[in-house]
Amino acid sequence: MTPADFRLSARARSMKASEIRELLKLVGRPSMISFAGGIPDPGLFNVALFQDAWREAFSGPSIAREALQYSTTEGYPPLRQWLADHMTSLGVPAEADNILITSGSQQGLDLIGKLLLDKGSAVATHRPTYLGALQAFSAFEPTFSSIDAPQPVGDAAARLLYLVPDFANPTGLTMSRAARRAALEQAQILNAVIVEDAAYTALRYDGETVPPIAALDAATAGSIEGTRTLYCGTFSKTLSPGLRVGWISGPKALIRKLAMLKQGADLHTASFNQMVMHQVAMAGFDTQVERIRAVYRTRRDAMLAALDRHAPLGVRWKRPEGGMFIWLELPEHIDAANLLKQAIRRDIAFVPGGAFFPDGSGRNTLRLSFSLSDEAQIEVGIFKLCELIGQQGLARAVSV
Ligand code: PMP
After folding, report:
1. Which of 100, 132, 171, 308 is most buried as measured by Cβ atoms within 10 A of its Cβ?
2. CB–CB of 94/133 below 8 Å?
3. Residue 251 alpha carbon to ligand 1 centre in Å
């Protein structure tokens, strides 16, 4: 039997395996220097804190039974309270009932798609934007528009503005306070919901903190209940992605609806994982964030310095103030997907940028992640990549 033998939904039929994903399966080779995965360095996980939390969850029969039992869809109450306090410290005055625990922020995006999108509904995003959000929303068969283009009002108006305001995946760019205000005003005019994806927000290496859109919204509205922003947070980039614990913060009316949708998806996020994450967050969230920031800052600086030294003329990039990514724009004639095939033969990997555009543009762009490589690997990897990019120019000059 092949999928063609089954009567699949139109949505499933239109899904295609990504060629790039197949290619990137090769990056597990030990000799490979990979700038591809936007994932935390596992060497930085605080294993000891997780061991303590794990033991704590099994330290007595009553707590162990709670950890092993079904729990409420909204989430483990002490974790919801910790997150409400965390949101309040970010300028979004929240109570536990303003928080829904999700299985990673990726599930948050899926639930928000279910909450807001019908077939043909418009979603406005930056171009490029996070591929996983495009995938999550695509299941509801919306149309995508660029947030920078004039937006239609009325029935065709975007229902959802998806933004990654801090150190975006894939560009590394941060929205200024003015840009955040403008997005909020645009959402008000369109009567749209803003989805603020804050996956990288804790990872700032320099520059001034800009308040979340959710905070600007709450300040204008007078309280979180009057806001139109759903803030998607996650422990994946700070504590651990493997336990799959994220959250949505927003007005209670929307959180209640989202909880009903989550119930149909997975009943609740694993009780044990939530208890462990709560314990680890209480014991060492701030210290852990400080520690990983210092390491990633050094790696970002090493990659920027290596690009300064080795990048051929015509390659452009901007300095990210945080996160995990540097976005390269190559000369027009270079196709980054093609470049990846050659790079993999030289043991270097990255993600071609085209995948991050809903309309298939951006062929001459690529995303580099500095989170997984040490400074020596970054120097060698960027040198080899830049040499390869330089050769593309030469090959063209010869063929013209
Ligand atoms: N949003 C962005 C911008 C991301 O880069 C990621 C992870 N790559 C996610 C959401 C999802 O992360 P998680 O589900 O692990 O919280």
Report:
1. 100
2. no
3. 22
Q: Which residue has the tokens 């995948």?
A: 355
d(CA 349, CA 247): 31
Which residues lie across from 322 on neighbouring strands? 204
Instruction: Using pLDDT thresholds of 50, 70 and 90, give the confidence band for residue 398.
Output: very low
Q: Which run of H or E residues covers position 230? A: strand 229-234
User: Looking at ligand 1, which atom is closest to the CA of residue 109?
Assistant: 10
Domain holding 52, by residue range, is 47-284
Q: Is the pLDDT of residue 349 over 80?
A: yes
Contact 106 CB / ligand 1 (< 6 Å): yes
**Pair 214, 297 in one domain:** no
In whole angstroms, how far apart are CA 32 and each of 217, 348, 350? 45, 6, 11
- Residue 360's pLDDT is what? 79
Q: What is the CATH number of the domain that holds 295?
A: 3.90.1150.10
Residues 258-300 have pLDDT tens digits of 999 999 999 999 999 999 999 999 999 999 999 999 999 999 9
Let me know if residue 128 belongs to a domain: yes
- In a shared domain, residues 182 and 326: no
Quick check: CB of 110 below 6 Å from ligand 1? Answer: no
Question: What is the secondary structure of 246-314 as a DSSP string?
Answer: EEEE--HHHHHHHHHHHHHHHSSS-HHHHHHHHHHHHHHHHHHHHHHHHHHHHHHHHHHHHHHHHPPTT
Q: Is residue 397 part of a domain?
A: no
Predicted local distance difference test score (pLDDT) of residue 9: 87
Model confidence over 63-106: pLDDT tens digits? 999 999 999 999 999 999 999 999 999 999 999 999 999 999 99
Q: 241 CB under 6 A from ligand 1? A: yes
Which pLDDT belongs to residue 19?
65
Contact 323, 92 (CB under 8 A): no
What was the pLDDT predicted at 306? 98
Torsion angle, alpha carbons of 197, 40, 306, 345, to 10: -110
Task: Retrieve residue 43's tokens.
Answer: 């060497």
In a domain, 180, yes or no: yes
Q: Is 169 in the pocket of ligand 1 (CB under 6 A)?
A: yes
Mean of pLDDT values over 179-186: 97
